[in-house]
Specification:
By secondary structure, the chain is of the alpha/beta class. The chain has eleven helices and ten strands. The strands form two sheets. An eight-stranded parallel beta barrel has the order 1-2-3-6-7-8-9-10, surrounded by four helices. It has a two-stranded antiparallel sheet with strand order 4-5.
């Protein structure tokens, strides 16, 4: 079955939140915006509303809750009361209800909650589900940097509308397999799965000089290595959208241009088999 057309989401992690970036995104047809309560020193929502409040209605806006200001800069919490308050504050600061609110990296707190992590995750997800029912947001999801700790907890939590996980050629096989298991168990369509960090943090990392991702495309000759890496990321794991951060509309435009590329699924599956074989050798 053919999946949905790939979609680019403008992520604001490490972004300066400049208005020219948002207008440039709209010019490119990028109408999805992803931020978080803790971005830009916990000021992302306020700065967005101040610098581009008139543009926000043109975007679908997703944000994340789970990190809170603390003595060391930021602390993580799955407390339902704090999460609900964070959603309410997001609505106030943005001047609108978010289209989607993610529970941000729940594994951060779950590692410290054993053996009560099942109850804590269920309560946190229920809080966001309740916030959706109250009209504070249109939908809720889970954004997880390391989804492996969530695998045993799936039966205890409500089904999220969207799952966001790391995607791309630099993602380890354990993370890829964990994401696939969550997608299957929650019966999520590709359009309900988002990827993030498709370049592992930087397009200028030395790995992109050594690896030619155009090998994963049916006809990658017209695309750059960065473009090919971005297009391939939609298949590692299979996602319908990828949130990517940049402060340059030109760079964003090149990524949008990469969507015309066709990924060779057999090559992707062979790559995953190689990752799994290598992982097995390292653990033996």
């Amino acid at each position: 079955m053919r999946g949905p057309d790939p979609r680019v989401v403008l992520g604001l992690h490490r972004s300066r939140h400049e208005r020219r970036l948002l207008t440039g995104a709209l010019d490119l047809g990028v109408t999805a915006l992803d931020t978080s309560t803790n971005y830009l020193g916990f000021r992302s929502h306020q700065i967005l509303a101040r610098t581009a409040g008139d543009l926000l209605p043109k975007f679908t806006v997703s944000t994340k809750v789970g990190y809170f200001p603390g003595a060391a800069g930021a602390e993580h919490s799955l407390d339902p009361t704090r999460l609900n308050s964070a959603v309410e504050e997001a609505v106030k600061d943005l001047g609108r209800e978010p289209d989607l609110v993610f529970l941000h990296n729940p594994e951060h707190s779950l590692r410290e909650a054993v053996p009560h992590n099942n109850d804590r995750l269920a309560a946190a997800c229920t809080a966001l589900d309740d916030a959706t029912k109250k009209g504070l947001c249109a939908a809720w999801g889970i954004a997880s940097w390391d989804p492996f700790p969530l695998l045993s907890l799936v039966p205890t939590v409500p089904r999220p509308s969207v799952l966001m996980v790391r995607a791309g050629l630099l993602v380890g096989v354990r993370t890829l397999d964990a994401a696939d298991t969550l997608i299957k168990n929650w019966e999520l369509d590709p359009g309900e799965v988002w990827g993030m960090s498709p370049f592992g943090g930087s397009t200028s990392a030395p790995v992109w000089d050594r690896l030619d991702p155009r090998l994963f495309l049916q006809d990658g000759g017209q695309l750059s290595r960065v473009q090919a890496a971005f297009r391939t990321a939609y298949h590692l794991p299979r996602v319908g959208s990828i949130a990517v951060g940049t402060d340059e509309p030109t760079h964003l435009g090149k990524l949008v241009g990469a969507l015309v590329g066709l990924v060779e699924e057999r090559t992707v599956q062979e790559y995953r088999r190689l990752l799994r074989d290598r992982s097995g050798r390292q653990s033996s």
